[in-house]
Amino acid sequence: MPSDEKQLRRYEFKKALEELSKQKGRGTELISLYIPPERQIYDVVAYLRDEFSTSSNIKSKSTRKNVLSAIESIMSKLKYYKQPPETGLVFFVGHVQKRGDQTEMYSQIIEPPEPVQTFLYKCDSQFYTEPLMAQLKAKDVYGLIVIDRKECTVGFLNGTNIVSIVNEQSLVPSKHHQGGQSSRRYERLIEIAANDYFKKMGEIINNAFMPIIRDMKGVFIGGPGSTKNFFFENDYMFKDITRKVVDLYDVGYTDESGLRELVEKAAESMKDMEIAREKDLVNRFMREVRKGDEGLAVYGEKEVAQALDRKSVDILILSEGIRKTKYYYVCPNCQNTAEFDARPDDNTCPKCGSAMEMDHEDDYVKTLFAMAEQSGATVEMIGEDSDEGKLLKKAFGGIVGILRYVPQKTTNSF
Ligand code: ZN
Known about the structure:
Number of strands: 16
Number of helices: 11
Largest sheet: 5 strands, mixed
Distance between the termini: 51 Å
Number of domains: 3
Bound molecules: zinc ion
Order of helices and strands: HEHHEEEHEEEHEHHEHEHEEEEHEHE
CATH class of the largest domain: Alpha Beta
Strand order of the largest sheet: 7-6-5-8-9
C-alpha cells in the first residue's frame, strides 16, 4: 500500500475511534464485540444466542429491549460473512444518547489495521475501544533478523504485530570438535558450511525484504554472540538492506521468541526514530519559513490549497490533530457555489439573494489527501507528542507545505 494511502487510512481509523469513544448509552446497553480472524462465524453466532437468552432477564425494560435489538442487529450482519476478514472484525452496536431523552441506534463495524488478538464480548454504558487505540500507537513496518551459527529466524514487525516468516536450522557443525590430525581440514570444512549457510540466509532475507524495502522504516538484527556482527558486516545482504539496519542487539534466542525479545530491546530506538523524523520535517519547514520570500514554505489554509491547485507542493505536512469539516453549498437559482467551515447562519446567495442549499459536507483532511494525490505531493502526518508537532498545530493551524520551487514574486519591490 502506498504510504499516503496508509496514512489516510490511519487518520480515518483514528477519527472513527474518537467518535466511538464519545458515545454514551443510557444504561448498560452498548455492545462491543471483538472477533479474531481465526474465529468461526457460527461459533460467534452461538455465543450471541446465549447472550440473547441471558439478556432476556435484564430487569429494566428499556435496557432489555435495546440490548436484545443490538444483539439481533449484530447477528443479522454476521450473515454476510462466511469467515472473518484477515484482521478480524469489531462490532460496536447499541442505542446511544441523543439530545434530551432521545436515543438512536448506532452501529459501526470495523476491520482493524492489525489482527484482533482475543475474542471479547462486552456490554457497557460506553464502547470498549482500548484494544483498537493500542493498534493506533504503532504504525510502521520493520524487518527483524535473529541469527547465530545454528539457527536464524526472519520476520516483520508490522505495527504491534510480530510475524515470523522463515526459521532455518543450519547444518554447520560445532567448532568445538575433539580434533585429531585432521582438525585443520575439519575447521576449513565448517567454515565453508558456515559461509553457505550465511549466503542462503542472505538470499532469503533479500527476497523477503526487497519488495517492501522502501516502506520499511528499519531493520533490527539480534543474536546471542558475535555471529550477527559477522553476518551484518560481510555483505551477505543487499546494500539497500544493510543501509536500513538501525542497530544490533544481544538477544538470547534465535527462534520466534528471539524476535519478540529483539522487538522489546529495539522499542526505544523506534520511538526515537519516529519522533526524530517528525522533528526533522518540521524543522526543515521552519528553516524555509525563516527565509521569507526566498523560502519554500507555504502555510495558511487558503495558500496551501492554492499551491496544491498549482501542483507546486512537494510535501504536504498535516498535524494529526486537525479535525475539520467543510460544508459545500449551492444556489438552486443561479448555481453559485460556496464553502463554509461551519453550517452558516446566513445562507443568502451573494449573487442573486436566494437561499442557498447544502450540497454536501466533507472531512477536510480527506479532501487535502485527495488534492495532494491530484497534484503529486507526498503527505506527511505529524503527531502532537513533540514540541515541533505542537508548534505545527498551534502556530500554523496544522496545515503547511514545502514547495518544489520558490514562487515568483507578483509585486516588484524598489
Ligand atoms: Zn444565487
